[in-house]
Structures are given as structure tokens and as C-alpha cells.
Design a protein that fits this description.
This protein is about 35% helix and about 20% strand. It contains 6 helices and 8 strands; from the N terminus they run βββαβααβαββαβα. Strand 7, helix 5 (about 200-210) and strand 8 form a beta-alpha-beta unit. It is globular, with a radius of gyration of 17 Å.
């Protein structure tokens, strides 16, 4: 296991990062950002689901950090169907239209996973991660899709949702699918967050316990939402680096062993 700055200074390091096209929901071809270590591998894979601010630079940086630590990482543009443009504008256009549909996101994630599996440098093992709305989608993917060996949910909002909060695009509260979670889960949350609130995280955890799921939650005092986003006032360096190391260790345990 290699954590932050535990690299060896005499090791070779190289990476490829580029835009690719993957088969998404209903066979529609969508763009995705792919980063991977150079060399034959085999490397495990990670599907990174973008957050509501969009398919943005932060997602690309997160992808490259995972690749620096030995993962092929792919981040599909789940918002592409509403058009192209600057990431936040496209994401807001989707949000104003009722939000990207869960069924569409799951189709895009499945397509991204299939793309990873077909790469000759792939080890055949993969995890999924997302932040904010992407955290919700990551948990949903762990419950609805086959092929993932680990899920990391970062401050996933609306995993716990009341019936009157459900919509045509999001017709189910992911917590109601907890029984179907098919792999270990790591959750990262700030105790000052309200989306999800600490009380909602408690409910989420109780559902996992009832279903005897393998999980680990890490909750940070003095931290709210989006603690990895250093462009935001929500950034919390100590909590961010501690949780980054926990995410790397979790993926190493379940994808590299």
C-alpha cells in the first residue's frame, strides 16, 4: 500500500491522460476522461462519477491522483446529453431540467466499466467512487450494477430521501436498496454537512448494519460538504488528506490484493 508521499524517489513514474469515447446508456456514445499509469500493468480500475458542479477539472485531478497510485481511472460525462459547454453551466442545465436520470447514470457507469475491463492493461478488478451527487450514484452503482469490488461514497447527498423527495429522474431512495449492496463500502462525511446531515448518515449506517454489510464510515468534526475541493471554502486540508489516504488504502485492500 502506497499512501500520500510514500513514493520512492528512484522509482519510474509515467501517466497517460486523455479524452476517450465510451458506450453509455442505451448505447449512446459519450465522452469520458481516462487516466492510467504507463506500462503493461495489469492495473485495477476505478470509475469516478462526476459531482453536480459538473465534469470538471477537479474530477480530472482526482482521476490523475488515483492513476499516480496505480489505477486506471475513467470519469464519464454523465451530463453530455444536455449539450456541451463549461462544466458548471452544463450541470446546471441538467439540474434545471430535473436532473440526470439515475437509469442514465447507471448505464453510463456500466459502459465505463465495460471500457475499463476491455483494456489490455486492466487487471479485471474495479471500484467506483463519487462525491456529492456522485457519492449517491456510487452507492447506487454498488447496489444495482455487477462488476464492482469496492465502493467509496464521499458525502453522498440524498442517499436517505423521503418519499416526497423522489422524482421521475430519481425514483428511489438508494438507502432502500441497501440489501442489494454487493461489495464493501467506504463512506467519508463531514459532521457539519447538511447534505447529508449527521442524522441522515446515522440512518444510512443503521441500514448497513441491519443488512450485515461490510462498511467503514469516517466522519470529520469541523468539516462540511466537499472537503476535497480546494477551490471551495469547504476545503479542509487535514480531513481531506486523512480521507484521501483512507480511500487509497481501501481501494488497495479490495482491488490490489
Amino acid at each position: 500500500m502506497t499512501l500520500w508521499n510514500e513514493l520512492q524517489t528512484d522509482d519510474y513514474e509515467g501517466m497517460l491522460a486523455e479524452t476517450v469515447v465510451v458506450p453509455g446508456y442505451q448505447g449512446v456514445r459519450i465522452r469520458a476522461y481516462l487516466s492510467r499509469p504507463l506500462g503493461p500493468g495489469p492495473w485495477p480500475g476505478i470509475v469516478l462519477i462526476p459531482h453536480l458542479p459538473g465534469w470538471d477539472e477537479l474530477n480530472r485531478e482526482v482521476a490523475r491522483r488515483f492513476s499516480q497510485h496505480g489505477y486506471i481511472t475513467i470519469c464519464p460525462n454523465i451530463y453530455q446529453r444536455v449539450g456541451q459547454g463549461q462544466p458548471y453551466e452544463v450541470a446546471m442545465k441538467s439540474y434545471q431540467a430535473g436532473g440526470v436520470a439515475d437509469i442514465s447514470v447507471m448505464g453510463d457507469v456500466a459502459g465505463a466499466l465495460s471500457y475499463l475491463d476491455a483494456l489490455p492493461c486492466s487487471s479485471g478488478k474495479a471500484g467506483v467512487i463519487g462525491m456529492c451527487s456522485g457519492g449517491r450514484h456510487a452507492f447506487l452503482a454498488g447496489c444495482q450494477l455487477d462488476g464492482f469490488s469496492a465502493v467509496v461514497e464521499c458525502w453522498g447527498g440524498r442517499v436517505v430521501a423521503a418519499r416526497d423527495e423522489l422524482t421521475e429522474a430519481q425514483p428511489v431512495a438508494p438507502i432502500d436498496l441497501t440489501e442489494k449492496l454487493s461489495c464493501p463500502l467506504l463512506g467519508i462525511f463531514g459532521n457539519d454537512d447538511q447534505h447529508p446531515s449527521p442524522e441522515q448518515v446515522d440512518v444510512h449506517e443503521e441500514a448497513l448494519k441491519r443488512q450485515n454489510k461490510q462498511y467503514s464510515f469516517h466522519r470529520y468534526d469541523g468539516a462540511g460538504h466537499a472537503i476535497w475541493d480546494y477551490s471551495s471554502e469547504n476545503y479542509r486540508p487535514a480531513a481531506a488528506m486523512d480521507s484521501w489516504n483512507k480511500a487509497l488504502a481501501f481501494f488497495d485492500e479490495h482491488l490490489k490484493s
